[in-house]
Amino acid sequence: MADSVTSDDQKFCFKEVLDAFRLCLSENKEVYMEHYVAGWRGLVKFLNTLGSVFGFISKDAVGKVQILVSLLKGEDGSHYSTIQSMVKYELENQLVDLTKAGAHPTSGCRTLLRLHRALRWLELFLDSLRTCSEDSKTSVLCADAYNKSLSKFHPWVVRKAAGMAFCLLPGRQAFFDVMNVGTTEQVVAMLGEAIPLISEVYQITEDLYAQHNILDIP
Ligand SMILES: CCCCCCCC/C=C\CCCCCCCC(=O)N[C@@H](COP(=O)(O)O)[C@H](O)/C=C/CCCCCCCCCCCCC
């Protein structure tokens, strides 16, 4: 794993994100933290190509990825090898603030929940990018996906700032070019591979959090 999640010495390549999410699931459907975090690092790399107006989003995502990487590399790292083991360990050891913000603002469960909610936005956004027409506006697709998912967890000021940033998104073709995959047909095919993987990781995490009643960690 590279030292810095902000390192942008490598060009973004969507295949990296696809590979990370492909490696995320174990045979018995546990979600490997190392690959989950690698998927997010790849996505942040893409976000960083969009310019400083997206800096506040990138900063938040990078901060959360860094928290998870620190836990994974820390002395209790063995408990963080999968999302399932993290939830078990943190709940059994009272390391999560369950009802109100308190002693554990950077617990793995809380931090991952924020990224998990954003993963639903990603799934919806990628699906609309995959199926949209050539002249569709990415700003509208992104806002629609956001309004159907992540926005309900954000206060007005964040929703407003995100909405303004979306207006500055490049067009669909520029998106596809930055993905570094090849022709439009190849991009669409790769999105078709990635979306079910992302969706499965999302659903397994959602079910796990629901089962432990931790979908509302403050
Ligand atoms: C062409 C295909 C590739 C598409 C690649 C998309 C790349 C997206 C990369 C990262 C997505 C950003 C993930 C943001 C995580 C946000 C987590 C969150 O909800 N944080 C809030 C709550 O945290 P706490 O305060 O409770 O700790 C925090 O308040 C948020 C602050 C920043 C604003 C987040 C807005 C998110 C908008 C959705 C992402 C839009 C990215 C557009 C780029 C296409």
Automatic annotation (TrEMBL):
Its main location: membrane. GO terms for molecular function: ceramide 1-phosphate binding; ceramide 1-phosphate transfer activity. It is a peripheral membrane protein. It catalyses: N-(9Z-octadecenoyl)-sphing-4-enine-1-phosphate(in) = N-(9Z-octadecenoyl)-sphing-4-enine-1-phosphate(out); N-(hexadecanoyl)-sphing-4-enine-1-phosphate(in) = N-(hexadecanoyl)-sphing-4-enine-1-phosphate(out). Pfam families: GLTP. One of its GO terms (biological process) is negative regulation of interleukin-1 beta production. Keywords: Cell membrane, Cytoplasm, Endosome, Golgi apparatus, Lipid transport, Lipid-binding, Membrane, Nucleus, Transport. It comes from the Eukaryota. Residues 32-180 form the Glycolipid transfer protein domain. GO terms for cellular component: cytosol; endosome membrane; Golgi apparatus; nuclear outer membrane; plasma membrane. It is found in: Cell membrane; Cytoplasm, Cytosol; Endosome membrane; Golgi apparatus, trans-Golgi network membrane. The keyword Secreted does not apply. Belongs to the GLTP family. This is Ceramide-1-phosphate transfer protein. It comes from Knipowitschia caucasica.
